Amino acid sequence: MISKKIIFSSNFFDNLAYIKEQAYDKKICLMIKADGYGHGMDEIVKLATGRIDVFGVSNQEEALHFRKLSKRDKVIVFGACENYALCAKEDIEVALFSYDQLKKILKSCKKAGVKPKLHLNINTGMNRFGIQSKKEFFKIISRLVKENLTLAGIYTHFSSLTTDEEYSQRQKMIFEEYANALPYDWDTCVHVGGGGSLFEDVECDMIRVGMLAYGYGNEYVKPVMAIESEIADMQYVKAGEHVGYLCGFTAREDMVVATVPLGYADGLPRLLSNNFDVKIALRKARSTGNICMDTFMVDVSHIPVQVGDKVIVMQDASPLAKICKTTPYEICTNFIKFRGESVIK
Q1: pTM of the model
Q2: CATH topology for 9-214?
C-alpha cells in the first residue's frame, strides 16, 4: 500500500511504563474504544497484552472483536449493549447505569443461565451515564444481594480535571461516598477515568487511561502514531492557474505541485486545506488547494523530488488539532477511516 499508518511500539511501551510508574500499585485499564483511538485495536492489543491489567471498550461490537484477539484478557464495555447474555457467555464485563437496566440484564442472563459481571457507573457530574441517587444505589445493591451477585466494579468519570478544580473535588467527594457505602466484604474494583485522573489523589484500585497511552496529555509521553504516504504524481502549474476543487488555491507564479494519495475519506480533515505542512526529504511542503476525498496536493517547487518519494503527513496530532481548533482525540480517531496499511515498528 502507498499510504501507511505507522505505530511506534517503543513510544507506546515508554508511555505505558510512565503510566505504571505514576499509578504506583494501582491497576491499569487501557481504553481501546474507537479502534484504539484511531491507532488500530488489533495493533494496540497485540502490543499491550501482558503489559496492562484490563482493556476498555465502548460497545458490544468492540468487545466481541476484542474476544477474537484475546480469549483470556479482561475487557469491560463502558457503553450500552444489545445482548447482555451473550456478553456474559463471552466473559465480557459490562457497565451498569440504572436499576431499570439491571432488571433487563438479570432477566436476559437468567434465561440464558449465565451470571453477568457488572460495573456500576456513578454519575458524579459528567452527566452522561450513571446513577445519581443513593436510593437507586441501595435498590441496586439489594437486588444484587437477592440474586446472590456482587459487583465486579464501581466507577465514575471525571469531566473537568484540567479546567475546574472545584467541580472535580465535588465529583471526588460524591464518588467516595458511594464507594464507602459498598458492603465491606464485597471484592469490588473501584476505578476512575477522565483526562488527568492518573495524577489525582483518588482512593481507587484502578485507573482508566486513554490518550495518555497514545502520547498526548503531557510532556512525558510521546505520540505513538504517524501517517505516511508518497508522491503519486507531479503537476507543473502556471501562474494564474488553480489547484484542486473550487479554485481552492491560485498560483501566484509558476510552481510544481505533488499529489499525495490520501484525503478526507482516510481521515485527513478538510479544514487543513492550504493550512498545514508535510515533510518530504526532511523539508517542509505546504498543502495546496482543498483536500480531496482521496488525495491532497502540496507545493514542492522548492524541493527536488520525484514520484515515489516518501511524504510524512503526520507525526504529532497536536499541531493539526490546533489548526482545526479541536483536540488530538478527534484528529487521531479520524484515522479510523484510514484505508492504507498499518505497520508496527
Answers
A1: 0.93
A2: TIM Barrel (3.20.20)
